[in-house]
């Protein structure tokens, strides 16, 4: 079954929506029409380029090329985590923390998914590796950046309360109270909500793509289920570790709150 | 006995000080002179050099939580984290203790937001004494109180120090209070802790 080939005109008609929206926002003086247009343009350019890159990758199919691609995805995602932090740890600590947890959790989950669940032949086949890794990294990135940002912010806002709790002999763990749990909860909520409504309210992007490309919906559903569990795993494990490491950075070995480590 | 040896923090001059059991040492000084920082450093809440000893045992020998439970820092403004007052106490304060400080019995069931500044300060003090510390590091414990409650708080703290043979460092901007409560007086001037003659 062939899909309909979209012409540049078709893409232009779709882009009209973005332009119309930018014009509306400009009229409302929301101050975001510029960034909307830039984001739209970036999206088009990046996707066009990645289309060529992926075609090249799929034709070549060499593991080291797949490795480079995965590395680039990871580097950009960890930069994005850093960019979304309102208060960063000084030096490279925030970047190290975000990148390492993102790396470990998304790679471990992707490798598990490829070797144990999907089992493509060869296991590094780019048609499987790149989309799967991409979906896990982007969701894990969101969860980790949200969790880290919320925790540093909560600790910063409540620094005096935390100090008094420490002064009363509470441990750092007790003194930051429910903040860390709240962060993990709020980071996981989007994933849980999406899983809960998957298929009823929305057809997930990947499934839509497979169906448009002519795969049987039943088969597409199976892939989507696997993907959802991998996303949940990447987000949950990644964020739990990130939050734990972040707590370690904000308190020292004498359980003193060290907010001067934030900048 | 609380002994402080060459305790230094930020760029303040190192402090050495001994406070005997049952003794109150007062520290005065302008706001921003570092009095509170000194108390925080003794409670091991901020990074510092030097060492503090309680009954001959060094701070670093204690776990941080144990040290702060014994050498307790009371901030000028008591903050709360649970909704109800009672949840902050390990044991409910006795009625006569509440009455002595002019607090109502039912205030333990109140929401924290309902408390006045003065009530917060007095309950914050009880919250600290509830943990039965051996050394008290008090930062302006009567700052938000009127004269009468102020006197009640002073009396209660001095009783605690005497009965438990606790060591007490009492920061106050009130010269008369410093003279009243302290056996020895110090003042923090230009990043130095100086003994006040007399």
UniProtKB/TrEMBL annotation, chain A:
Key words of the record: Membrane, Transmembrane, Transmembrane helix
Name recorded for this polypeptide: Iron export ABC transporter permease subunit FetB
Keyword set includes Transmembrane: yes
Transmembrane regions listed in the UniProt entry: 6-25, 37-58, 64-82, 94-116, 128-148, 191-213, 225-246
Organism, as annotated: Pelagicoccus mobilis
InterPro entries to which the protein is assigned, alphabetical: UPF0014_fam
GO CC term, one of those recorded: plasma membrane
Coiled coil: none
Compartments, as annotated in UniProt: Membrane
PANTHER family: PROTEIN ALUMINUM SENSITIVE 3, UPF0014 INNER MEMBRANE PROTEIN YBBM-RELATED
Family: Belongs to the UPF0014 family.
Membrane topology type: Multi-pass membrane protein
Automatic annotation (TrEMBL), chain B:
Keyword Transferase: no
Annotated InterPro entries: AAA+_ATPase (IPR003593), ABC_transporter-like_ATP-bd (IPR003439), P-loop_NTPase (IPR027417)
Record-annotated ABC transporter domain positions: 2-196
A GO molecular function held by the record: ATP hydrolysis activity
A Pfam family assignment: ABC_tran
Keyword vocabulary terms for this entry: ATP-binding, Nucleotide-binding
PANTHER family according to UniProt: ABC TRANSPORT PROTEIN ATP-BINDING COMPONENT-RELATED, ABC TRANSPORTER DOMAIN-CONTAINING PROTEIN
Name recorded for this polypeptide: ATP-binding cassette domain-containing protein
Native source species: Pelagicoccus mobilis
